[in-house]
Design goal:
Elements lengths: L6 E4 L8 H7 L4 E4 L14 H15 L5 E4 L2 H7 L1 H7 L9 H10 L4 E2 L2 E5 L2 E5 L6 H6 L1 H4 L4 H5 L5 H7 L20 H6 L7 E4 L9 E2 L3 E3 L6 E3 L6 E3 L5
Parallel strand pairs: 1-2, 2-3, 3-4, 6-7, 7-9
Antiparallel strand pairs: 1-10, 5-6, 8-9, 10-11
Helix pairs in contact: 3-4
Length: 242
């Protein structure tokens, strides 16, 4: 198969394996993971250790592929950055085995980023873990500028940037009117979209069955992959049987 410009989007993994068949079924132009690879939900009968093992399998599976983008979520950053963990640790942190998870992130540190953007079918798309909220953007404007992918990715390079990422939405139990691009909430962006001229795609706010898709954003955290196809409007679910 010749590679196309279609974009496969894998929302929050949390130790699940729904990504496996999807990334090999077609020769996608880009495969992008929206973050949160570890810290499984207890109700899904996946242990913390199994989630880390699955993460290692994922990393081996995509090794050497120049078309794979690995974004960071809040459940990744508290292993990736000690400062972030101190300021905004997420639930289900694996205290007894955190050294194993930290080791994996440390080994592959250069492969991760916070944001990715592209233009397809006449639309400009920005992909992050939880989206850019207007209130968060206003509070951090000097630091993130126009919130391009490059500007957002630079947040990983300084303590000031990590502190901005550690701002947790009030809807998520924090103290900020709008959470960061890893600690926001879909309702924050529905009320106050920080980038009205950009189509935002993110996960983080888990939905029961159906994604939240509007004319300006898509919240896809529903435990299955989606695809943006060149020459076709909208975002469609990938209905592979695994």
């Amino acid at each position: 198969m010749s590679k196309n410009n279609d974009i496969l989007i894998i929302p929050d993994v949390h130790g699940r394996t729904f990504w496996k068949e999807a990334i090999d079924r077609e020769d996608f132009g880009t495969i992008i993971f929206l973050g949160d690879y570890v810290d499984p939900y207890p109700s899904e009968d996946i242990t913390a250790g199994q989630a880390v093992d699955n993460f290692k399998v994922l990393l081996r599976h995509v090794e050497g592929r120049d078309n794979v983008v690995l974004l960071l979520g809040n459940h990744d950053l508290h292993y990736y950055s000690k400062l972030f963990a101190r300021l905004a640790m997420s639930s289900r942190y694996w205290y007894s085995g955190d050294y194993l998870t930290i080791e994996v992130f440390e080994e592959h540190k250069s492969q991760f980023r916070l944001a990715w953007e592209t233009t397809l079918n006449g639309h400009h798309y920005l992909l992050t873990h939880s989206g850019v909220c207007g209130k968060w953007l206003s509070a951090n404007r000097e630091l993130v500028g126009t919130a391009s992918a490059d500007e957002l990715n630079h947040l990983l390079e300084s303590d000031e940037g990590i502190r901005a990422l550690a701002q947790v939405s009030k809807r998520r139990g924090g103290f900020h009117a709008g959470g960061s691009i890893v600690w926001g909430d879909v309702h924050d962006i529905l009320e106050d979209n920080g980038l009205p001229d950009v189509y935002q795609i993110f996960g983080h706010s888990q939905q029961r069955e159906r994604p939240v898709i509007t004319d300006h954003l898509a919240c896809l955290d529903v435990r299955r992959p989606f695809v943006l196809r060149e020459g076709q409007p909208g975002i469609e679910p990938v209905e592979y049987t695994i």
